[in-house]
Design a protein that fits this description.
About 25% of the residues lie in helices and about 15% in strands. It is of the alpha/beta class. The protein has 3 domains: about 10-105 and about 155-195, 3-Layer(aba) Sandwich (Rossmann fold), CATH 3.40.50; about 110-150, no CATH class; about 205-310, no CATH class. Strands 2-1-3-5-9-10 form a 6-stranded parallel beta sheet, sandwiched between helices. Strands 4-8 form a two-stranded antiparallel sheet.
Amino acid sequence: MAHETNTKLKLAVYWGAACGGCCVSVLDVHEKLLDIIAVADLVFWPIALDIKYKDVEAMEDGAIDVTLFNGAVRNSENEHMARLLRQKSKLLVAYGSCAQLGGIPGLANLSNKKEIFQRIYEDSESTNNPDKIHPQPKFDVPEGTLEIPEFYNDVRSLGQVVDVDYFIPGCPPQSERLLEVFGLIVSGAELPPKGSVVGAAVKPLCDDCERKKSDKKTVKKFYRPWEIKDDGETCFIEQGVICMGPATRAGCGSRCIKGNAPCRGCYGPTPEILDPGAKMMSAIASSIDADSPEEIERIVNDIVDPAGTFYRFSLPASILRRKIK
């Protein structure tokens, strides 16, 4: 997308089903934000600007140059805004893990709508709801009809709902990568092919990791990070701690690893990986030191919540997509 230097870009940011960290990461560019607003006008950002949905609806199609859409599509409001911003934007960017892959909200696909509502509105320890009343999309009161978004059974990534131009991964994306991508757009340089993951590497995080690795089978037991004293030097997996590095793109700067925490997988799988969970099962299998099927089973059973661990950020966009009964 070529940009005329005498006009400012029109930039939008939307927050769907997410925690808000992606919006904070936009502010984390610190003083570089002044450089951004020098060449771009923010025309829609609900958490920072008093601009209504109706204002976006009144815009001409393609009036927004770039929209950073963060968050998954959890309900009808998210879907409406995804379709609206697709219509109004020249470039629609899935910004962060939730928009790209479904993210943490996507773990709700391990349940269904009925189970979620029953837990929240009937069975939770702090709930007193003897009539088992659940929220309804529409409810009539004397003053009129109250409406709230419809809660969907499935969490979906942005690309499962609308056509997406680019994907910037991360939970949240590193601010340095955002500046790089934005600078590329502003410069008028030739952009990567549509559908590309930008602001990340193609190689796995293990290739950037400075920890010591060997080809030996070393794992006799798997631990949660708080159950073992990390030596600060050896590959987490070889110490028996699940690390998503083998199934995750590099590009984050290995910040979790450098902080002595295993990778959680927020930058998503590398291009050749069809399913991050399957890749992790392969990586783990190659590290187990066992002499019998019974010992293998015992070691594997040490892994707490494998589905939630291996698909922490990627369940909706994986081959599985959700739990099927």
